[in-house]
Amino acid sequence: MDKTGKVFCLDTEILGEKNSISVYLIKSEPPCIVETGPSCVAEKVLSLISSLGVKKENIRYIFLTHIHLDHGGGVGDLLERFPSAKVVCHPKAVKHLINPEKLWIASKNALGNIAEAYGEPKPVDESRVISANDYEEFDLGDDVMLCVHTPGHAVHQVSFYLKRDKVLFPGDSAGVYAHDIVVPTTPPPFMLEPALKSIDKMLKLKPEFIAFTHFGIAKAKDGKILETLRRRLNLWCKLAIEVVDEGGGMDSLHSKLLEKDDGYRELFNLTKDSVIISGFHMMTLTGLLDFATSFKKSEDLSRG
Question: What is the average per-residue pLDDT within 245-259?
Fold first, then answer.
């Protein structure tokens, strides 16, 4: 639950599943949270925060890595209960927090029943949103929270870094972590080059801990986790391009990844019964094929 004396991993236990989506409480002065989870877990998050002795009126910031429902769908619900809080996000996320209609439609189209289970996000008043610049800092009294733009997984993705305690909150820009395995999460429209540059930015921070939204706090191992993610991203995109060249689809890519990547195979087998993680898995395959198709088209165009 607590790995640094100040950062607490709150398991939302969404749809009854443990270790799928986490929210982080930082007992700084003032206290703040990173991520909210979807709307359906707002009451659970409030209960967990209260159980740790933090009053909801003292929460100053909600640091939101991006607006996908599993990360920020509950921000409107929590802001209603945190009277002094403001949400900090990427500039491109602001309009979707103020008016989440397009986000909700896109989420239902992409996720179907899972989006309905997550719940529709509530609009956020513009006065309560802070558009954070790249490398902007936020004073937390006994620490500083650094905002770093890390696109790739999404154009509006940011990571947050507690400078004194050296804890990185990467959202999905550092992938999904479970059973000591880290794998990419690449929903469409996935962007490989920005994602690789974002990994470089995170490596330069030299975190000691990585607080994954999916799931839990891990030791950064002197950058080895992020380097492993980089290698897997390159491998998975290469394999996706091969599949598209061969005229294959989702099943072909899945089979190739099972064959070529031990980590993919192990994590798939460990999490295949999870509704939430299975949803991430399908979106990852879809995004890889979308990337590979776009790559092939651009390559064909460059050849004339």
Answer: 94
Q: Which residue has the tokens 């651009």?
A: 298
Name the domain count of the chain. Answer: 2
DSSP states of 242-269:
HHHHTT--HHHHHHHHHHH-HHHHHHHH
pLDDT tens for residues 102-130?
Answer: 999 999 988 888 899 999 999 999 999 99
Q: How far from chain centre, in Å, is Cα 293? A: 24
Residues 49 and 180 placed together within one structural domain of the fold = yes
- Residue type (1 letter), 47: S
Question: Above pLDDT 70, what percent of the chain?
Answer: 97
Determine the Cα–Cα distance for residues 232 and 250; give it in Å rounded to an integer. 18
pTM value is 0.93
Domain match, 213 and 239 both = no
Task: Say if CB 183 and CB 277 are below 8 A apart.
Answer: no
Rg of the chain in Å (alpha carbons) = 19
Handedness of CA 238, 294, 96, 128 (dihedral sign): positive
